Amino acid sequence: LRKMNLRDGVVHFVWFAVLGLPLAIAIGFIHPAARWPAIESIPLLIAGIFLLNALPEEILFRGIIQHSVELITKSRLGSLVLAALVFGISHLNNGPPLPNYRYFVMASLAGVFYGLAWRRNRNVLTSTITHTLVNTAWRLFFR
Known about the structure:
Elements: H1 3-26, H2 42-73, H3 76-89, H4 101-121, H5 124-141
Helix pairs in contact: 1-4, 1-5, 2-3, 2-5, 3-4, 4-5
């Protein structure tokens, strides 16, 4: 983990939030949380999201899928879009409703920013930081 991984992970989170937050509200994907979790539970929440959710998904979708498609096709844009769409498709079962097309849209958009973060340093820790920040913000402030 290098300083640039953290900086680039945060930058891609901010860019996703700028575009994703208005879209998520407009399509009814998120709503403000009625109450926030206890402050002492936040570090465990972040660690859990990082280790159990973001890191395994980023190893698969960016470290394996996006990287492999880019090597095979020599297309940075094509690999980014394909990995983001596969990431979105993998979230269709997060419902109700099933299939959850709102989740697909938001996960695909997030996947683009995770893929851009990964591509910046060719390092899954960068995209994992972005992914962790997105999921943590969602869990803390929205439902």
